[in-house]
Amino acid sequence: MISGHEIRDAVARRERSAVEVAQQALQAIDRLEPRLRAYISLLPERALSQARSVDARSRAGQDAGLLAGVPVAIKDLFCTKGDRTTCGSKILQDFRPPYSATVVERLEAAGAVVVGKTNMDEFAMGSSCENSAFFPTRNPWDEGRVPGGSSGGSASTVGAGCVPLAMGTDTGGSIREPASFCNVVGVKPTYGRVSRYGMIAFASSLDQAGPLSRDVRDAADALEVIAGFDPMDSTSVDVPVPRYADHLLEDLTGVRVGLVDDFDETIAADSGMTSLYQTAYRNIEALGATLVHVRLPHAKYGLATYYLIAPAECSSNLARYDGTRYGLRVDGGDDVYSMFERTRAEGFGPEVKRRIVLGTYALCSGYYDAYYVRAQKVRTLMKADFDLAFASCDVIACPAVSCPPFELGAKSQDPVAMYLMDYFTIPMSLAGIPAMSVPAGYVNGLPVGLQLVSPAFEEARMLGVAHAYEKATGHARRRAPQLSAR
User: Which one of 182, 230, 309, 373 has the minimum C-beta count within 10 Å?
Assistant: First the structure.
């Protein structure tokens, strides 16, 4: 599968039809899906109908859109009108929403062709895509390893070359970690940059939608399409959306890039990871950037802070799944409370139940001020740390992950080990600022990403740096060896 912008240009010139491209993407998915298990639902009828519409607009000489004919996979927590939207959970396994998410509507208005809904950790709670109620997704670089989570299906299908673009969501690292593990680009925008309307909530003050793609140019185009104010979302911020593709850089002359001393000290125990990131920093410097050192002294409290705030919001958001309005209902018992209990016990998986319990405890009378309120105060301190850091640099470069993709089942019985996977990504989520992962090389033959971070609503900065780095290193062009060899 070639890049999205190459597909768009070919469709616009009528050198290829959107229908032909969609059929090829669906065929690639069918061929690899038995091995990867990246999709919960395929949508061939929706895809071909949209592709025919794009071709008709093209034949009529109309602008078919910035993503005209580009096959796109959608994480299965974005509502798609009339099509099953499960959020990776049994409690929503038969839910068909009566409307589509704003992200989906904007993609299709721009000519994108939605081919399917991708697998994910249940309600976006996980770092490995093993918490899905249906099946685990596999990494295209090594089918015995995880693709990362929670947007694992989206990362896997892009990393396998089935589609050039997919949508994910990021609450504490759920775009950036799978992007790193599958050797693709993944962007978490500023909180409020992309509408959350029609996006099934995990933690409302943290969730944000963003693209996963084969290259930075596709991520820039996709972000331009989905970003912007939406009156249907009370957290949407009315800030102008630039033409991100116009800000992609060829070199980094004059750019100040901050290196986080606190993070480098944390990862120093792993020589392979340390070597990879030191090489990445040297590559950035060779492109003309000035490297400066910055501190994020409160980042070490990120995990503890996140695992008070996110479960508390999860407890509140998931209270609506009680069997009375929509989703699974398990009858039995003597009263409605028994029905609630049976429905939630059968409908939610272990990780979701764990976080509901954690969050409910943190919100209990007598503990609210001691835990939730205090965590919000630490969150404010983290935001202040980033503000101070950006006073001396334009963009921050740091690790996206602490290790290459790990084996399926290796951490599934140890929740704390799994939570630690988000150590480097959580501080940016708590601060509400944009961050992304771009392919940075390989440790023991497995891909690892470099995280780039910019101030709020300055996504253009990190995309510009990522583009120059991507072109200079060429890591994103390397295909998964297991898939290309067969």
Answer: 373
CATH code at position 101? 3.90.1300.10
pLDDT in tens, 181-211: 999 999 999 999 999 999 999 999 999 999 9
Q: What is the pLDDT of residues 381-392, one digit of tens each?
A: 999 999 999 999
The upper half-sphere exposure of residue 210, i.e. CA atoms within 13 Å in the direction of its Cβ, equals 38
In this prediction, residues 451-471 reach a mean pLDDT of: 98
| CB atoms near residue 356 (< 10 Å) | 22
Task: Quote the CA–CA distance of 61 and 416 in Å, as a whole number.
Answer: 56
Residue 144 sits in which domain range? Answer: 4-255+393-484
CB under 8 Å to 189, separation ≥6 — which residues? Answer: 208, 209, 210, 223, 227, 434, 459
Residue 341 located in a structural domain: no
Buried b (16+ CB within 10 A) or exposed e, 149-163: bbbbbbbbbbbbbbb
- Cα torsion angle, 289, 293, 297, 303, sign: positive
Closest CA to 179 of 455, 379, 433, 401: 401
Is residue 286 in some structural domain? no
What angle do helix axes 350-363 and 302-317 make, rounded to 10 degrees? 100
Tell me, yes or no, if 174 is annotated catalytic.
Answer: yes
Please tell me which residue in 17, 150, 402, 429 is annotated as part of the active site. 150
Which secondary-structure segment (H or E) carries 292?
A: strand 290-294
pLDDT recorded at residue 2: 87
Q: Decide if 223 is inside a domain.
A: yes
How many Cα atoms are found within 13 Å in the side-chain-facing hemisphere of 227?
Answer: 26
Q: Is 75 among the catalytic positions?
A: yes
Indicate the number of domains in the chain: 1
Residue 359 lies in a domain: no
Residues 187 and 211: beta-carbon distance below 8 Å? yes
Residue 483 has pLDDT above 90, yes or no: no
**Of residues 429, 434, 436, 433, the one with CA closest to residue 398:** 436
Instruction: List the alpha helices (DSSP H) in 321-439.
Output: 336-347, 350-363, 374-389, 415-419, 426-431
Distance CA 180, CA 146 (A): 11
Q: How far apart are CA 69 and CA 133, in angstroms?
A: 32
Among the options 17, 75, 132, 315, which is catalytic?
75
Q: Give this prediction's pTM.
A: 0.96
